[in-house]
Amino acid sequence: MIRESGSGDLRQLLELYTHLHEKEIPPDSEHLRETWASICADPNYHIVVWEEQGRIVSACLCLIVPNLTRGVRPFALVENVVTHSDFRGRGFATACLDYASELARSKGCYKIMLITGTKEQSTLEFYRRAGFSSEEKTAFYKHL
Question: Helix or strand or coil: residue 55?
Answer without folding.
Answer: strand
